[in-house]
What we know:
- With 144 residues, this protein is mainly alpha-helical.
- It has helices at 6-25, 32-42, 48-54, 56-59, 65-76, 91-111, 117-140; strands at 46-47, 79-82, 86-89.
- Helix 1 packs across helix 6 (91-111).
Amino acid sequence: MATRPIGYWVKELDRLLEESFRRALASEGCNRRHWQLLNVLEAGPVTDAGLGAAVAPFAATDAEGARAVLEDLVQRGWAEWLSGARVQLTSTGREAHRRLEVTVAEQRRHIAEGVSEGDYRTTVSVLERMAGNLEAFLARSPRD
């Protein structure tokens, strides 16, 4: 049995992910939120609301907030607003995404070192089920 509960390891992993991404992306003046938004936008134009929903699990704990990071991407010329409150990557933004993608792939290799593909998939699946269980429980439970 593990000596520390799952909550400890989830928080510790998140803290270490933030720090490793901060260091890895610092040369571009970016952080993990920049990468997340660039990655969502790489798939194509998205509405402001859709972008917010895509990064919502991270925005609640991020002091900068997704909106501030999005505005930074626009200021850098990496993203641009379209009609209908949609935003897309510019060609410069796509180039930045490609550069950062190499760095992120290297980070992922370090994170998964010594972890088999099967163990990784199982871990993600278990965490997803646990989150779903808690969402269902909270939906049934009375609020404060």
